[in-house]
Input
Amino acid sequence: MHNQTLAQLSKGLAAKKYSSVELTQYYLERIKKFDPMLNSFITILERIALEQARRVDQLRVTNENHSPLLGIPFAHKDIFCTQGVKTSCGSKMLDNFIAPYDATIVTRLHDAGTVLLGKTNMDEFAMGSSSENSFYGPVRNPWDCDRVPGGSSGGSAAAVAAGLIPAATGTDTGGSIRQPASLCGITGLKPTYGRISRYGMIAFASSLDQAGSMTRTAEDAAFLLNVMAGYDEKDSTCVNQPVPDYRKNLNDSLEGLKIGLPKEYFIEGLDHQVERIISDVIREYEKMGASVKALSLPHQHLSVPIYYVIAPAECSSNLARFDGVRFGYRCKNPKDLEDFYKRSRAEGFGEEVKRRIMIGTYVLSAGYYDAYYLQSQKIRRLISQDFQNAFKEVDVILGPTTPTCAFKLGEKTNDPVSMYLSDIYTISAPLAGLPSISIPAGFIKGLPIGVQLITNYFTEAKLLNIAHQYQQITSWHHDMPPQFSPAS
Amino acid sequence: MSILTRPTVEKIAHLARLAITEEETSTHVKNLSAIFELVAQIKMTNTVDISPMAHPLDIPQPLRSDEVTEKDQRKLLQSIADSSAIKSGLYSVPKAY
Output
């Protein structure tokens, strides 16, 4: 049952093969049995989940018109506020924080009938590419527990990959959905900036942050996006655009599809075996009638440098609210107000968060703003224009999600620049605000690797169609890590 | 040579209201300098006549009328807050120095 997709489980529930209570109990048992090896959950909500499962089973009896998500076990990344439940964002700073309200997508997915089993582990405040920067300890990759699952949505990725939950939310600021999806062998969708409300999603870098889904398949991502997408007046950056049925065009033919291959994606540093897998993916698309065109994204090489100006700048501003006064961690025995602020923040935040606050504070400080922040925002426009020029010639841009497979725990923790470069292929899409997906594309020495697809603004239906068609002729997305394959 | 000096790092930490130890200062000098070496290449890019991009979709900030929209949630907030921080329905806060 744990290797089934959300779509299959939805059918099983509708056909009364099992109840939501049975399904919920099954997944709770798996979490209890396997999560000690992965540390993918921060909070497990057994009682709340079983109560909710009982309610939705009743609803199925009394109401014939229900959502396809009714009764599906689900998990949220611990960055989403959940009323009455700890929402830690992976930080000691919020270890004692009980959210007083629900994030909009928490409400939407609850109203659609999903059953919340828990909150998943993550890099603190979503800052990281390995899920090692969590106050609650590192998450491990189910394909090799000595390796990282990627980050920052590593808890969601590991839990979905190991079959501890059929699907979960993630957030993506520079690759935090797609990079762990690639390293864990699952499907990770980051929609267009503004497609999904950010209300109740703890802010890291507000002009980049976007919620999305971590699932086994593109079809499952379409199920979820149908519920998650849409205007929300509580988020002023949420865009008021009609929400299509994202499942409707999944089976459209790809005959005539134009795929762009940016030469900048196939450079030194890309693992040769990853390159070979991407070539295999291209061949599969060609068999389906797509054509391939080489192109250039000339400012791609500046994506990582400007990201590490813009994201820390916004983070230093957003995280100024954590001052120990109103909520969150508070230091003991301060000698004066300045000591109170400084020690509350120094003791409450982890190393990577402090590092980014420091970078952001520096680039926004007097004398450096124009040279760093303003210059980066101008280059951001050049990167965005490169994509728009590309989309005049092609429908989708294809390339690797990550330059390598999952690396070992601790391998990059003392070298932040090396860690930052693991997001080299994922950072440009959020800088431009474009939708992007990573889907499983193969294995290298038993470790999964993903391929990344990027399309133009608000064309998630097309993006999901392209991903789904690949998953109709391949089976990488069905593979389970052997250690987690047995039923509990 | 490091791009950032110890006094610069100490100044940034003060502006960010972060207490740092001597040892942490050394680590920050090393790591932040390496990061700014990576970032330095942005200075070489010609951005004359390019307007900065603050919003990925270049959409203006929507405004609403200046009206109170939030209901009083005092009871709810007190019910979920740390009970040791609530005294006689009031919040206990640190002493103002």
User: Anything to note?
Assistant: Chain A has a mean pLDDT of 96. Residues 369-390 of chain A form the longest helix (22 residues). The longest strand of chain A covers residues 436-444. Chain A touches chain B through 68 residues (CB under 8 Å).
